[in-house]
Amino acid sequence: MHGRRCRSGRQSNLPHGSSTRTGFLAVRSGLPLSHTDMPISRKPTVTVEDGITVIHLGPEYESLDEHGLDELRESLLKAVDGANPPFVVLDMAHTKFFGSAFIEVLFRAWNRLHARKGEFAISSLTPYCREVIEITNLDKLWKIAGTSREAVAHLLKKVNA
What we know:
The chain is an alpha/beta fold. It has helices spanning about 70-80, 100-115, 125-135, 150-160, and strands at about 5, 10, 20, 25, 45-50, 50-55, 65, 85-90, 95-100, 120-125, 145. It has a five-stranded mixed β-sheet with strand order 5-6-8-10-11, sandwiched between helices. A two-stranded antiparallel sheet has the order 1-2. β1 (about 5) and β2 (about 10) form a beta hairpin. It starts with a strand and ends with a helix.
């Protein structure tokens, strides 16, 4: 069935049963994917601000569902393991959605930091993401800051205490 409408309302010429995901085509029809249809490799930007590790999730991390989460998990945990001192800010300014699989990644990161007497903070949450964090009471466990600069300042107080 060609010529159907996508969820976005645009015209789609994909065969029925095919679907699109950000940056790649997931074909259920059994046809092979070309290299241009494969997901783009993405890694978060990691900086150190006043001795605090800050992990910035860019625009390519707008939606953190299970697709592509393995690569982010690996990059995030590697940055957490390399943080010295073990104080990390996760800047999520561009993230508009995440699911329970991403919350598991956050817990893994926090557990690794906590085992090293470190701390974890999240900054720049969109209203939806902030609501998810608050509903799950994770804002009681981690510092939630408006900006990465505020989160760094909070963690610096802990380092210097």
